[in-house]
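ARCHIVE RECORD
Type: protein–small molecule complex
Small molecule: (2R)-3-sulfolactic acid
Source of inputs: curated submission
Record status: active
Notes field left blank by submitter.
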Amino acid sequence: MPSIDVCFSPELLHLYNLKGKAVVAVDILRATSTMVTAFAEGAAQIFPVMELEECRDFARQGCLTAAERNGIKAEGFDLGNSPFAYMDGSVQGRDIAITTTNGTRAIRLSEAAEEIVVGAFLNLQAVADHLAELGLDVLVVCAGWKGQFNLEDTLFAGALVERLQEKFSKENDSALAALYLYQTAKADLLGFLRQSSHVRRLEHLEIHKDIAFCLRHDVYSVLPVWRDGRLVDLKVKELES
Ligand code: 3SL
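STRUCTURE (tokenized, with ligand):
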């Protein structure tokens, strides 16, 4: 039976061997929720990068550029990190380069894995189905906040452990802790997260709508996966072949 484990911060990745594993990179508020939404809205490819300058350079290749630092859209970029900014039809068929404070970092630091999947509550079941089909050991990599633990990514990890628990063994206590936390919180995720640091940070920016949206489960069936230096939606690829 394959196993599932949870890494609470990219800073802890040195403790894990990613070789041969499937990583689920998650930044519920809001980077991976936004990427999932972008694919659902028809984005062609997403280039997650760590630095603002690198992201800006992608404009020369005809990409839309998206950047966020500390919860705020960075100046001079086409898009920020709100999923709602990707819903006006403008990303349909477009390539997007994106850099965010923590989410894009979690993805890029996981490159040694066999497979990287971008997860969010919004595409939870699509991610669970893909992992069950792959049958590899799974590591959920929580983006956290500047190296520190956060609740919302851990809750997602717990939700995924719950969906996969019949088919995957829990590698260690972090998977168990995430599961217990999710089971405690799932009846009212928004209420549970109200005192969390990032929700307080975002509420100062008046992004209540984003927070509620990013906590919705199974809204989309898109499946962003890392292929040759970019993210593509595997569901679209399956339909094409
Ligand atoms: O840290 C990140 O990558 C962002 O998702 C943070 S925010 O939701 O845009 O504030």
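CURATOR ANNOTATION: The first strand starts at residue 3 and ends at 7.
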